[in-house]
Structures are given as C-alpha cells and as structure tokens.
Amino acid sequence: MRLPVRLTNVQQTLLLTLYLRALESRSTTPVLGDPMAERLVACLDYDFTRFDSKRGDPLVALRALSMDRQVARFCARHPDAVVVHLACGLDSRAWRVDPPATVQWYDVDYPEVVELRRALYPERPGYRSVAADVTEPDWLEGLPGDRPTMVVAEGLVMYLPDAEVERLVTRVVGHFHEGEVMFDVFSRVGATVMRCQPSFRATGATIRSVLPDRRVVERWSPRLRFIAERPVLGEPEVVSLPRKTRVFYTVLRSIPALRGSLRTLHYAFSDDNTHS
Ligand SMILES: C[S@@+](CC[C@H](N)C(=O)[O-])C[C@H]1O[C@@H](n2cnc3c(N)ncnc32)[C@H](O)[C@@H]1O
C-alpha cells in the first residue's frame, strides 16, 4: 500500500525536488543518480504528474551533487563531524554521501515531513531526524556544539523572509563552535523564472528571499568568512548532460545575468575569523 501524503504548500516543494531527482536518476546518463528518490516516488500515494515536464530538469540534481561534494569533503576532513541538514525534505543526502558512523548526522524539517521520512527511511548509525520549524530557536539545544559542524540547507532560504534567513544563520553560527555553512539562493531573475514555472506553481509555495550579494551574509556575523559562490549552471557535470539540455544550459551560463540564477553560497565560521 502506498503512503498518503498530507503536506502544506512549502512542504510540497519537497515532492517536486524529490520527483526531479527521481526523473534524473531514471535517465540514461544520470549525473547524480538517486535510486532512493526513485523508490520513494513509487512508495507515495501522490499524483506526481502535476509536476510533469517531459524530460525533467536536471538543475536540482546538479545542485544536490554540488552540495553532496562539499559535505563529503567536510566529512572526509573531519571524521568526528556533525552534519546538520536543514529542510532535508525526503532527500537521501546522508545515504548518497554515506559518511562513517563517527559522523553525527541530523536531518531537520517540519514534524509532518519528518514523520513521513521516518515511515520511509531505514535507520542508519550516527543518523537522527529532528522534527522542528528551523526558524524556532529551541531545536538547536539538543545538538552538540563542540565538534566541527557542516550546516547545509538546500532549497530552504528562498522560502523564508530575509530577516528569518539572517536570524537562522546567526543562530547556527552562534551555536556551533566552528565549521561551515552552505545554502542556495536565487537571483532576482532566477526567482522570477521559478515563479513562472507551472511545476513550481502547482506547489502553492511563495518565494520570499533573494540574496543578490554574497557580502550581505558576511555582515551578519564577524565569525563568518566567505569560502565560495557556485552557480549551479557552472558545475562541471553540465558537459555530461544529454545534448539538448547541455546546449541549453551552456547558453544560459554564458549570459552573465542568468549564470547565477541559482547558486550556492558557502562560508566558514569560527572565532578565528573575528581576529582577521
Ligand atoms: C524545496 S524543498 C527542499 C527539500 C530538500 N532539501 C530537497 O532538496 O529535496 C523545501 C523544504 O524546506 C522545508 N522547510 C521550509 N521552511 C521550513 C521551516 N521553517 N522549518 C523546517 N523546514 C522548512 C520544507 O518542509 C521542505 O522540505
């Protein structure tokens, strides 16, 4: 029997990203490959055809791949790391990155989403899911603050008001002793394009935050130091996409106003940064 899905608008966006990863995974030459997404789509009692686009859009898979790479690099460098995966949705990042059990991994999302996750995912050593609204302060209290920590949020901050994004980032940077924080943002053009997509409109969600300038984030805390800004269209795997999509993305990324439509922002945080 398939599991019923009862999610509100912003929560429903996780079904769109899940479906796009499943479609990409089913393609003949996937760049990400996410068999868990394929399996979950088959397990849910939900009409995914409302998101249909004939070939799917591999941008979500490229974004996931880019973030997986950074999380895997962090875990390889810090076998005692804590990974805090905010707004995890039904994403299988912990399974794709597959860190050793010495890494403590926390997947965080709304209670309705975490309940669904718990019904679908097996347990794994070092892994816990946390049911919380990330804009509330208390969920952080149970998480260890004294280990190198990677905080990753994919497809989250665009749904929060700007002031909440700042509060969230300063809160996590204040709780954990040292580490890195990474999240993706739309440019104004990217947000406009997204708002016009029928598949996105089908979720009923609203895009609230656009961060036009990476330097804005550094001003939120003296503990933050910029590491990198990565346009998703700039990922090296674009060259491995099917021909039509590859040509389309190559044209898009050659246009400066479009190249950064969707990009990840990546920062380090520690007390050391306050002295430099
Ligand atoms: C676009 S989906 C992304 C899900 C997942 N990261 C992925 O890539 O498939 C947005 C996610 O943000 C979560 N979310 C939005 N606002 C949140 C909040 N205030 N607290 C916890 N989760 C939130 C939603 O429940 C949803 O799972």
TrEMBL record:
Residues annotated as signal peptide: none
GO molecular function ontology, one term from the record: methyltransferase activity
Pfam families linked: LCM (PF04072)
Keyword tags: Methyltransferase, Transferase
The UniProt record lists the keyword Acetylation: no
Record GO biological process: methylation
SUPFAM superfamilies, per the entry: S-adenosyl-L-methionine-dependent methyltransferases
PANTHER family in the record: S-ADENOSYL-L-METHIONINE-DEPENDENT METHYLTRANSFERASE YKTD-RELATED (PTHR43619), S-ADENOSYL-L-METHIONINE-DEPENDENT METHYLTRANSFERASES SUPERFAMILY PROTEIN (PTHR43619:SF2)
Name listed for the protein in its UniProt record: Class I SAM-dependent methyltransferase
